[in-house]
Amino acid sequence: MTSTIPAAFLDLHVVQTIPLSGLNRDGDGNPKSVVIGGVTRARLSPQAVKRPVRRHIEDVLPDEAAVRTRRLVHEIRDILMRDHWSEDDEELATFAALDVFAAASGGMKVGSDNESADGEKSKDPLATAALIYTPASTAARLAKVAAERRDAYETALKEAGAGGAKPKGRAKAKKDEAATVTEAEAVKGWLAGANGSIALLGRTLMEVDGAERDACVQVASAFTTHEATIEVDFFVAVDDYAATTPGIPAVGQMGDSQQTAGTFYRFATINLRALLDGIDGDTELARRLCQAFIDGFINTLPTSGQTNSAAWTMPDLVHLTARSDRPLNLSTAFDKPIRGGHTGHAAPSVERLADYAHTIQRLTAGRGLVHAVHAHTGTDELSGLGTTADSYNQATQTILDAAFGPQK
Fold first, then answer.
1. By C-alpha distance, which of 93, 71, 70 is closest to 80?
2. Which of 238, 243, 262, 329 is the most buried (most CB within 10 A)?
3. Residue 207 neighbours by CB distance under 10 Å
4. Quick one: which of 303, 238, 230 has its CA closest to 261?
5. Do 44 and 23 contact (CB within 8 A), yes or no?
6. Closest by alpha carbon to 144, among 178, 179, 96?
7. Contact criterion met (CB below 8 Å) for 380 and 354
8. Helices within 235-391 (DSSP H only)
9. DSSP code per residue over 92-114
10. DSSP 3-state of 329
11. pTM over 0.85
12. CB of 156 within 8 A of CB of 144?
């Protein structure tokens, strides 16, 4: 059931200056980049942007928290030993955790190779082959089901044999024989279940029937509005004992890292009607999820490399639009790179975006635009970006009222 609301999409446009840092790096450890308009720009991948936003959403809305993990069976086992049985029941808890997971997943493969940071491989008999993205409550719910069947599990474990035996659900069951001690019907669909976080951000889990969820959020790669250069940061680590020993070089280690800086254009959009479909038309929850996403998109950055850069800036501009037809990415405004000069890149980037948005509104006669609002660090009027808000929070509330209707 989809509730009728004024808007179909919420678009988020952010212009943000980020100082020298390496927030998103490629496989060689270099800042990610892309060529646009004939020049190299620094970029931030959608994956790097989305994870801190997801964590922010789940901090703000803990009831909608989800986990992405290959260690769900580990967690079920640990909950059984901690909350239901005892630490002496590890073998039984392992057996039960494998069984109840097999029942819930339909027999997803368990047991896979792990590779450490130094390249060493090891076998983890309880790790799932695929990452599972599921509500945070799933492990505790499955552990509770298993705990209520302790007697049946003790019997099944004895029949299977000691010494790390696996439940019959991990192999082919005989004809007319239950595949698992826990009846599959009792936990059917639990791994495929979704809360608000999963409904918003989507899920890829082909191994479980019915678990696939299309994301209602799309995040574009952020890129600098101007040409970006890579800076090599050379460093020396001092050996403290050597530094106090005459005749011994104090240098303990030398190395370098690559970093970049610039003014970025960031864009994301939320499909409101798809979100409502995914949460049974709950308009209030949809509004809270959208508010949390907007707040997270404005206030978070990738955490990689922050220890050596502390690049925790705020946006120079936040521009939010509610649309009834389709999303509208305004990145084409920066196909021609900004030439900042003594004015820097932030102010001309904001002006360019406002001019381009105004041009698009003129060319389309405002088609599909329900409302537009912005807040920025400057004082100039930016008529191309809709109404002016005094703060990012006020802009957020304004666009949510436009998209969902005023709160009652």
1. 93
2. 262
3. 17
4. 230
5. yes
6. 96
7. no
8. 240-243, 272-278, 283-299, 346-363
9. HHHHHHHHHHHHHHTS--EEEEE
10. coil
11. yes
12. no
Q: Is 182 left (phi over 0), alpha (psi -120 to 50) or beta?
A: beta
- Quick one: which of 215, 227, 235, 105 has its CA closest to 170? 105
- 38 three-state secondary structure: coil
The predicted-structure confidence for 195-249, as pLDDT tens digits, reads as follows 999 999 998 887 787 888 999 999 999 999 999 998 888 878 888 888 888 888 8
Give the type of residue at 244. T
* 3-class DSSP assignment, residue 279: coil
Check: CB of residue 202 under 8 Å from CB of residue 217. yes
CA angle 279, 280, 281 (to 5 degrees): 95
Within 10 angstroms of residue 288's Cβ, the number of other Cβ atoms is 17
Half-sphere exposure of 134 (CA within 13 A, CB side): 27
Mean pLDDT of 69-75: 95
Q: Which two tokens stand for residue 6?
A: 């004024």
Question: CA–CA separation, 221 vs 182, rounded Å?
Answer: 45
